Amino acid sequence: xxxxxxxxxxxxxxxxxxxxxxxxxxxxxxxxxxxxxxxxxxxxxxxxxxxxxxxxxxxxxxxxxxxxxxxxxxxxxxxxxxxxxxxxxxxxxxxxxxxxxxxxxxxxxxxxxxxxxxxxxxxxxxx
Length: 127
What we know:
Helices cover 24% and strands 26% of the residues. The chain is of the alpha+beta class.
């Protein structure tokens, strides 16, 4: 679990809803909120070797949903690091990676049909 809030009172907050969370706490002191967002990432890589490397990078950051689709719960810094690592293995003329950020409202309306349980990303943090 990632701490989103620290202070003298206990608070529960869904990580994806931290965007609208107040920056001052019960004591009135300013707090810094670390934002995480769920991202759906898909890829189409021409080379088997590059495809395996891209999959390995993505497996370090999230959960595989299908052969070329991943769900990754990332902070802005992690997203930047992921993009940098992916870029090392891509040929812009042959390969494609798509990164879709999903807001809390979108994640809440996610529907799964058929097999493939939805990974548990609805973390609640109490501090």
